[in-house]
Amino acid sequence: MSKTPLLGRIVSGATLAFATTAGAQSVQLDPAGSSPILSAVGWLQGTLLGNVATTLAVIAVGATGLMMLTGRIDWRRGATVILGCFIVFGAAAIVGGIRAVATGG
Questions:
Q1: Predicted structure pTM score
Q2: Biggest alpha carbon distance in the chain?
Q3: Lower CB count within 10 Å: N or C terminus of the chain?
Q4: CA 105, CA 88: separation in Å to the nearest integer?
Q5: Residue 73 φ/ψ, nearest 5 degrees
Q6: For the segment 47-67, what is each residue's pLDDT rounded down to a tens digit?
Q7: How far apart are CA 54 and CA 62, in angstroms?
Q8: Cα 3 to chain centroid, rounded
Q9: Helix, strand, or coil here: 91?
Q10: 73 Cβ neighbours under 8 A, 6+ residues apart
Q11: Over the stretch 8-34, which tens digit does the pLDDT of each residue have?
Q12: CA 51, CA 46: separation in Å to the nearest integer?
């Protein structure tokens, strides 16, 4: 008796199980007329997270660090500025983590 037919049945059974779970997922379509809104939000995201925003964040962190070193700003406020930059640029990863926890997957 050969093991190949048994392996073939296991693989086809696993394929069938994945196919049925993939079919059960719902597809979310964009609402009618949302294309201009989506493109505007995409432009806003590109602007806020693009080269200009990165340059401004580098300048803000540099200026805050210099002010913290010279004693012109307290360490707590400086840490708040730096933490804010991490939150702005890590927002997509933070939201993805929250969604994964909320959906259980």
A1: 0.51
A2: 82
A3: N
A4: 24
A5: -140, 140
A6: 877 888 888 889 999 999 999
A7: 12
A8: 44
A9: helix
A10: 64, 67
A11: 444 444 444 444 444 455 556 667 767
A12: 9
